[in-house]
Write a structure and sequence with these properties.
Blueprint lengths: L1 H4 L10 H10 L9 H5 L4 E4 L14 H10 L8 E4 L7 H9 L5 E4 L9 H6 L4 E4 L3 H10 L7 E4 L1 H32 L3 H9 L20 H14 L5 H24 L14 E5 L14 H11 L3 E5 L9 H6 L4 E2 L3 H5 L4 E4 L4 H4 L3 H7 L4 E4 L6 H7 L2 E3 L5
Parallel strand pairs: 1-2, 2-3, 4-5, 6-7, 6-9, 7-8, 9-10, 10-11
Bound molecules: uridine-5'-diphosphate-glucuronic acid.
Length: 401
């Protein structure tokens, strides 16, 4: 809170500093300690607390319950409490019970923005979903979004909560499908880019979220896909399709590990099969445009390579200025270089794990000149295979010959 008050935005998020600074300067935004201080006297209170994963894959609602318990006594009569946290079906009534305020409406309003493009996504939503059995409360919340001129879907609370999980589950399914087809393309001699362009051009399928890669990660898809399986199972339904989506993703990490091992002329069987192999990693974050390392496929793959005996050094644009405590903890066991070429120095295998545009702009001759070997595994299909092979790389990517 002190850092925010000092005008410092502690995360990498395009455009966020500008909107925050403007709002603070205009007197429309302030940062306080304590939920009750923020909620007192407010007409609308948004709950946007994390709902991390519990041991059994279900969502941990303790932050949500704590926030509701704290604001319950101070809410003004007729206030509207809006839950933006991703919560299992039925949580709106949990908030109602904890608040103990029959004079206050609780509305579900899931958020669909992506990290890295959060400001843009929030201001340009494909739809706004509002779930409440009380239609006047739903209309009050819808009115808040009127300036965005977006499609508004008003439904009951249970459906709104389900929409959030089903949307993330479906998007994860699209990516797992693309990754599975990429594996097939490699086997049959087809090209994933052409195949995804071909199927994505069908308006019923659409081109978005069909980019193959090292597997999906981040703070949402992994936890929400597992929560979807857990919620279904708690209600007696075995969501086997979602379990398949998750296992295809786990396999994808392992497929990338095997590509790196093969590029080093090794396998993955036995004790420390990658002993003596130096891996130079480009990218730590779960995607470009964010400094978030949570559930990053890059780190899952690098941890496995290190466990197989490889020496791993990497670089990410978000670690260029040195590591904070969180980054240091998550990157323990890996060397962290000050720039991309530093990560590749003396490497037997270079591996691209995050699609940062500055990696695509690297000069292949310079990359090769600092490396000990000539192998490049491009898990993001960032480079043109013909260009990299012409430069002298032994090049492998995802779903392409
Ligand atoms: C995701 C959803 O896209 C948002 O709509 C949702 O609001 C958010 O979760 C959430 O629940 O809070 P986010 O986790 O920020 O957003 O990231 P995405 O852009 O969806 O990417 C997730 C993962 O999928 C990344 O690892 C990314 O590299 C991967 N991905 C994405 C692919 O491998 N291929 C694609 O075509 C797209």
């Amino acid at each position: 809170v002190a850092r925010l008050r000092a005008g410092e935005i502690p995360i990498v998020e395009a455009g966020l500093d500008e909107v925050v600074h403007d709002a603070v300067a205009a007197g429309r935004l302030e940062f306080v300690v304590g939920a009750a201080t923020g909620a007192e006297g407010a007409d609308f209170v948004f709950l946007c607390v994390p709902t991390p994963q519990d041991d059994d894959g279900s969502a941990d609602l303790s932050y949500l319950a704590a926030a509701a318990a704290e604001i319950g006594p101070v809410l003004k009569a007729g206030a509207t409490v809006i839950n933006k946290s991703t919560v299992p079906v039925g949580s709106t009534s949990v908030v109602e019970r904890v608040l103990q305020r029959p004079d206050v409406s609780v509305v579900s309003n899931p958020e669909f923005l992506r990290e890295g493009t959060a400001v843009h996504d929030f201001l340009n939503p494909d739809r706004v979903v509002i779930g409440c059995d009380d239609t006047t409360a739903a209309e009050r919340v819808a009115a808040l979004y009127a300036p965005l001129d977006a499609k508004v879907v008003v439904t009951d609370a249970a459906s709104a909560e389900t929409i959030k999980y089903a949307a993330n589950g479906f998007l994860a399914m699209k990516i797992s499908f693309a990754n599975a087809v990429a594996a097939m393309c490699e086997a049959v001699g087809a090209n994933i880019d052409a195949v995804m362009n071909g199927i994505g051009s069908d308006a019923r399928i659409g081109p978005a979220f069909l980019r193959p890669g090292p597997g999906w990660g981040g703070s949402c898809f992994p936890k929400d896909s597992r929560a979807l399986v857990a919620i279904a199972s708690q209600h007696g339904y075995d969501f086997s399709m979602m379990r398949g989506v998750i296992s295809v993703n786990d396999e994808q990490h392992e497929r990338m590990v095997r590509k790196v091992a093969a590029a080093a002329g090794r396998g993955v069987a036995g004790y420390h099969p990658l002993e003596g192999v130096r891996v130079g990693a480009l990218g730590f974050t779960f995607k470009a445009g964010t400094d978030d390392l949570r559930e990053s496929p890059a780190l899952a793959i690098l941890r496995r390579l290190a466990a197989l005996g490889a020496t791993v050094t990497g670089f990410d644009p978000t670690t260029a200025g040195g590591l904070d405590d969180v980054q240091a903890a998550r990157l323990a066991g890996f060397g962290v270089a000050p720039d991309a070429l530093g990560a590749l120095a003396d490497a037997d295998v270079a591996v691209v794990l995050t699609e940062w545009p500055e990696f695509a702009a690297l000069d292949p001759d310079k990359m090769l000149s600092v490396m000990r070997g000539t192998a490049l595994v491009d898990t993001r299909n960032l480079f043109d295979p013909a260009v990299m092979r012409a430069a002298g790389f032994t090049y492998d990517s995802v779903g392409r010959q």
